[in-house]
Amino acid sequence: MTLAHLPALQVVAPLLAAPLCALLRAPLAAYLLTCAVAAVAAATAGWLLFTVTAGGAAVITYALGGWAAPWGIEYRVDALGAFVLVIVTGVNLVAVWFGRASVMREVPRERVFLFYTGWLLCLTGMLGIAVSGDVFNVFVFLEIASLASYFLVSMGRDRRALSAAFRYLLLGTVGATFILIAVGLLYQMTGTLNMADLAARLPPLKESRTLQVAFAFLSVGVGLKAAVFPLHFWLPGAYTFAPNMVTVFLAGTSTKVSVYILLRFFFSVIGTDISFDALKLHWFLLPLALAGIFTASIAAIYQNDVKRLLAFSSVAQVGYMILGIALASAAGLSAALVHLFNHALMKSALFFTVACMVFRVGNSKLTDLAGLAKRMPLTAAALVVSGLSLIGFPFTAGFISKWALLAAALQSHGWWLALLVLASSLLAVVYMWRVVEALYCAPRAPATVQSQAMTVTEAPLPLLAGAWLLAAGNVAFGLSTELSRGVAERAALLLFGGAP
Amino acid sequence: MEHHKVLRVVTRLLVPLILLFALYVQFHGDFGPGGGFQAGVIFGAGIILFAIVFGVQRCMHALPPAWMRMVAAGGVLLYAGVGVAGVLLGGNYLDYDVLAADNIAGQHLGINLIEVGVGATVAAVMVCLFYCFAGGDGEHEIEGDGAGGNHG
Asked: Which of A92, A237, A492, B113 has the highest CB neighbour count under 10 A?
């Protein structure tokens, strides 16, 4: 009986905690509350995933307020939604539980409670997107998550965080407006906002120009939110100047959730018949994905700040997910989903290790991190492990997704595409090597930093534990693919089956 | 604005009416056009009008920023709390039927409580935003530089 309320609990727990956090005001109380909610959210997501994959029911629905589906607002959790829930709550759990030292260092004490309030609202929004079975609610939750993340980004210590947050706000608002226009057009054509109902009513309207316009608005809007290549300009600044734990959290979740929206709309709501067969979505996604992978990887090579470098790498990695989707096959989609999971893991691990270093060194410039491996051997080792995963080294999570992507590319487009994917991996080797070289090979030279360097030691235990937990996750999910690959394949089949 | 006598007198007359109209929009919302959001905006606008004409300091004295933030958070809490009450009483989240003895009374009670939450949050957030733009967001309280909007 009570378990039936889990989809609502998933969203309501952080939603209730956010105003409580604002009322509590004490930094420690706000932190403990956020920790408790993170645990509840992760447990709920785990249980939901277990139920939809192993527990019999393929879809869990929940009628808000007791109003039945096409009229009322419906929460609807299937394998794909639960998969995203697990990713978001997992990254959130590690960032909240182990990241306290970093947050306390970077956020002014009197604003810590506001920081955690914003964090909880951001979590509410992301979880809401994944459970909602109603397109308008997806938009509302997206705005909750986005507004909260603009605020979180602006909390960075560097004053440039404000301009980065403002740029993120401008582009994010354009994206959200486009999505709303698309939702409005869909509603105007069908008179319904429920995803399942839309999916049933849209196919006869295949030829309608309104649908094509809605489709275009949707692609651009979600593309902006997901930082798909030419629309990624907000991302590097936002990731670079945000507080480190916010970067860990957003890098692991926000673009993933946006990719989820893209999948949900193009596969479940509009359907593959229209998205791919009629409107040829993959014709423009494929070149954009490849252009994004190469441009962003090359841009990453030339960065002098590790956070910025990793941010550009994130744009490239989103490109891999889009590439998987653009293959328009179940194998490609499943590769994209595996990469969704693995990239969340590897990028949050990388940003977490960078957060450890920033905690000691004060900034993330490559020159200031030079020779740091001697002072912080464990942190540097965690970075190497996660970096290997990013490149796609065997026995790491990254290898699993690269392999799946290669196999899918070979299957649908032949060797040239597989070759391009491999070549782009070499670019990842180049930019990750720049970081590793700075850490291990460069001497800890400049005299000005020298005095400070004497005090640089290993990061505090909780931060280190968080970094290693994520790095170990990269190895664990490289060896056991039951969760990532198994669920991804299931979700891919579900999407290609056409059932929302 | 000391010398704008007309403005001051008119504002003094209008503010109570604006606040009253906000309450009308709030509580008549389930029978006619209106509801928490609109009422909150009207209520907040009334307070902001007062602050513009009589000075932000005076307004902050009557409605301290810290209180406003608590009201803003409290409204959300009330909204989410009504939903949880529905679950505890055996319905789904935000199910109002179970809130009272019969369904119709439950629906009335539920929607009114929710709209009060929305109204309180919207009004308080508007005032908070105005305080921010007017110079004192309450973090660095009222004393000091004589925040903008008040050259009396």
From this structure: A92
Query: Does B113 map to a domain?
Result: yes
More confident residue, B149 or A50: A50
Contacts of B37 in chain A (CB under 8 A): none
Would you call B93 and A19 a contact, using CB atoms and an 8 Å cutoff?
no
- Pairwise pLDDT comparison (A180 vs A495), residue with the higher score: A180
- Residue at B143 is within a domain: no
A25 touching B, CB under 8 A?
no
| Residue B141 domain-assigned (yes or no) | no
* Alpha-carbon distances, residue A109 vs A103, A104, A116, A153 (angstroms): 9, 7, 12, 17
In angstroms, rounded to a whole number, what is the distance separating the alpha carbons of residues A84 and A130? 7
CA A421 → CA A328, A342, A391, A426, B109, distances in Å? 17, 17, 11, 9, 59
List Cβ neighbours of A131 (8 Å cut-off, separation of 6 or more).
A7, A10, A11, A62, A75, A76, A77, A81, A85
Site from B70, B94, B132 to mutate, A interface, most A CB atoms within 10 angstroms: B94
pTM, to two decimals: 0.91
Position B35: which residue type? G
Give yes or no for a contact between A153 and A164, defined as CB atoms under 8 angstroms apart.
Answer: yes
* CB B135, CB B145: distance < 8 Å: yes
For residue B119, the number of C-alpha atoms closer than 13 Å in the C-beta half-sphere is 23
Q: Is residue B146 part of a domain?
A: no
Contact A129, A140 (CB under 8 A): no
8 Å CB contact between A296 and A333: no
**Tokens 């967001």 label which residue?**
B137
**ipTM value of the model?**
0.84
Domain membership of residue B48 as a residue range: 5-134
Contact B87, B49 (CB under 8 A): no
* Residue B129: CA count within 13 A, CB half-sphere: 9
Round to whole Å and give the CA distance between B26 and B12. 22
pLDDT tens-place string over residues A231-246: 888 899 899 999 999 9
**B80/A20 CB distance under 8 A:** no
